[in-house]
Amino acid sequence: MKELFQHAAVTDGVTVRVAVNFLPEQSHPEAGKWFWVYHIRIENGSHETLQLRTRHWRITDARGMVNHVDGEGVVGEQPVLSPGESHDYVSGCPLTTPHGSMEGFYTFAKGDGSPLEVRIPFFPLAAPETADGRSSA
Question: Which SUPFAM superfamilies does the entry link to (predicted)?
C-alpha cells in the first residue's frame, strides 16, 4: 500500500511528513477508545548531518484536553541523518474522543552539538462518521 503523506512542515531544510489513518480494529467506541496510526518521514534537506535527540508532542482531544508527551528519540531510536537521507517510523495515538489533533517538534543535534528544533506539522485525528452521525469504528 502506497502511503499518502497528507501533512508536511519544513524547518531549516528538514521536512517532516505525516500520514495518519484511523484504525477501527484497534478502536472500541462503546468503551470510549479510538486509535490512530501515523507514519512519519523525516527528510534531511540541509547541508549538515543531524541526530534526532528528543520529541515533543501536543495531543488535544475533542474536549480540549491537552496532553504533552516528551521523550528521547522516536520509537526507541535516535537516528543520524546525513544530508539527503530520510528516516521513517510508525507509531500510534489513542484518544478517549472520536476527534482530536497532534502537533509538536523534534530537537536535533547538529554536527557541532548545537540544537535544531524542527516542527512536526499539525494534523487532525478524526474517526469516520456513522450513518446516524456518531463517530464509530
Answer: ApaG-like (SSF110069)
